[in-house]
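Table S5 (text form). Sequence records supplied for joint modeling of the two-component complex.
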Amino acid sequence: MRALVAADLLKLRRRRGLFWSALGLPILVGVLLIVLALSGVADIDGGAVFYEDLSFVLYILGSILVVLVGARLGSEEHAAGTLRYQLLTGISRTRLYTAKMLATLVAVAMVLLAGLVPALIGALVLSDGGGPGLTGEVVADNSWNVALPLVVSALIAFGVGALTRATGPAITVALFLNFLGVNLVLLLALIDDSLRHIALNLGIDRLTYDEVDADDRLGFAAALIVVTAWPAAFLAAGWARLKRLEA
Amino acid sequence: MVVTTGLTKRFGARTAVDAVELAVPAGSCFGFLGPNGAGKTTMIRLLLGLARPTAGRVLLRGVDVQQEPTRALARVGAIVEEPRFHAHLTGVENLRVHAPLIGGDAVARVPYVLDLVGLGERGDDTVKGYSMGMRQRLGVARAMLGDPELLVLDEPTNGLDASGMADFRVFIRRLVEEEGRTVFLSSHLLDEMEKLCDAVAIVEEGRVVRQSSMTALLDEGGRALLVQCDDAARAVAVLEGAPGLTIAAALAPADGIVRVEGDHSPAAVAGLNRRLVEAGIGVHGLRLDAQTLERRFLELTGVPRVPRREAAP
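The corresponding structure-token record, covering 560 residues in total, follows.
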């Protein structure tokens, strides 16, 4: 399995534009903010605030980057016409799918590391900036707040890629779902108001910032189900598509 | 090595592969021939478990490809329709990302298979810069990665120039004769198939209309004597009554060529010549017209050829 994941990551690494965007942009933004803070151009109020701000920037940037990566990994073999050659080695389709899904998760982890490590370094450097200092709790909370939505977005994009089997449409659909999908769910609220609670963003918010109104606030278990069910549904649909496919 | 029983594939009302019974002997080069749209590629996809049959089964190396794909496809290499690659990767990288799917020592075989197909020097170039012929070669290299007992190649000479085709012929014959591998080839290049294959199956509209060794197939078609003379019409009239001869056709009356089937022993040919000369017909040439795969193919698939007896008086 490790060799299969490594092979998928090599394909990704050789897409230089995407690869350097995914890793370079978060690093660049982090370094830029550190420089601005140190030079006094940006008013950063201590290490904790710096880490919080930069992880939010990574969340915005990463939401797009992980969709590009996930959609590509989900659709790439179909689009390149190489899936047929993979299948005729006799490899199990489930194993193939799982390896690509794991490669997606590894790629998300790399994006997170590329963004959070400079953020951490910057926060440590700026820890005496006057505001609250950097603590382990701040790092853990903010890292989690970025990681969860990015992982969910990447897995949904991966499932969409496997379903659409074409990279361009997969990216478009996944980006649409990522930023406007909640509106589609809210249409269901016209049928029954309680259906608005299945919106993914409510579940993610409950498990991260936990800042929504009391009316929309989900219980922890319900939030966990919502956050798990959405990517699971897309992953299952992509997997079913691959299982049934005649290459 | 490959056995199919009642293999059928339907797409809605259309039957693409119709109750095909195929038996490919191990250690042979087997040609799968048919006109465009005859169902060759669908058949290959069924053989390799890429498509599910509507009925029937496929055994590769004695293992059912639908029931146990991993075991059936172990040591099987293939090109189906056209070799496809990740164009942004180099030739070497394309093989290296494929090798883990095969397992074993496939990664270690990458330089060997590249050399085998003559791409050793270009392995570090990205595939987007490869010509069609180079992609075909890389496709063969990928098919060879798993040290296959069975190689299934769909139109493998597409994009190869004359020298590439000659190299390919030598390569395939070496795989069969020296290494004992089985090669299943589909191609529309009948001349190439005739030179390469030990046995063939001819397919038309999803059905196998003939399956035989190449020698038997060609022998069944019989051989003809081509007589070139200065008056084909009169030659046909003179020869028609001759015992033991059949005037099959005047192939090109304007050129004075008459095709004669029957006894082609030296004595019979001399007798035929004497008969024509005694009738005052000038004979310019006598030669045996060997049966070709193309002619047999056209006969078996019902494609019209030169009308028989078109110039008979």
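Note: Residues 305-313 of chain B have pLDDT under 50 and may be disordered.
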